[in-house]
C-alpha cells in the first residue's frame, strides 16, 4: 500500500511545476481524515513544489502534524487588514477560509477548497464582481472577479491576475478555461437545431 502512495505522489509531481493540479492529486490516503486532504485549496498554492511532494510522502499523522506546524512557522507574519495589524499567515488563511466557507461552499465541498475560495483566501475579496453572457445558449453566466493593477502580493507570493473567470459546471463553480470553451462549442454542435 505504501508503494501505491509513492507512485501516486511521484506521478503527480510534473503537474506541480506550475501549480495546476486537481484535488485528487493532493490527497495523502495513508494519513487520517484530519490530515489526508490538508493540501487541497490554498495551501497547495502557498507551498513550494518540494513541500507538496514531501507532504505527499509522509507516513503518519504525527509526521503530518509536525510538518504542518513547521510549514506555518516558515510562512511568518504579514501586515493584514485595513488597520495594518500583523498576523501570522496561518491566522490570515483561517480567517479568510472561514469567510470562504460561508460564501463559496457547494456540493458538500468547503468553500476554502473551491476555486473561488482558494483565490479568496490567497488574495482577499476581488475589487469587483461582474458577469459575462454564457458562451452558449441556455448556459450559466461566467462569473468575473477583477483585481486592480498592482494589487498587493497574495499569500502565495504572487500578485493576483487582473481577471479570474469562473463557470458553473453542474453543482460546482470552477475556473473557466479555453478547454471549457471548446467543450461547450462541441456540446452546442451536438444539440438538435431549434425551430
Description:
The chain is globular. The protein is an alpha+beta fold and about 200 residues long. The N and C termini lie far apart (about 55 Å). Mean pLDDT is about 85; it is low at about 1-15. α5 (about 90-105) runs antiparallel to α6 (about 115-125). It has helices at about 1-10, 40-45, 50-55, 60-75, 90-105, 115-125, 180-190, and strands at about 75-80, 85-90, 130, 140-145, 165-170, 170-175. The longest helix has 16 residues, at about 90-105. It is built from 7 helices and 6 strands. A hairpin with a 2-residue loop joins β5 and β6 (about 170-175). Strands 3-4-5-6 form a 4-stranded antiparallel β-sheet, with no helix packed on it. A two-stranded antiparallel ribbon has the order 1-2.
What is the secondary structure topology, with strand pairs?
Layout lengths: L1 H11 L29 H5 L2 H8 L4 H15 L1 E4 L4 E4 H16 L10 H9 L4 E5 L9 E5 L16 E7 L2 E4 L2 H13 L5
Antiparallel strand pairs: 1-2, 3-4, 4-5, 5-6
CA-CA gap between termini: 57 Å
Helix amount = 25-40%
Assembly form of the protein = single chain
The secondary-structure class comes to alpha+beta
Report the major sheet: 4 strands, antiparallel
Strands of the widest sheet, in order across it, are: 3-4-5-6
Number of helices: 7
Mean pLDDT: 84
Low-confidence stretches: 1-17
Order of helices and strands: HHHHEEHHEEEEH
What is the number of beta strands?
6
Strand content: 5-15%
Global geometry? globular
Based on CA atoms alone, the radius of gyration comes out at 19 Å
Provide a short characterization of the protein structure.
The chain is an alpha+beta fold and 195 residues long.
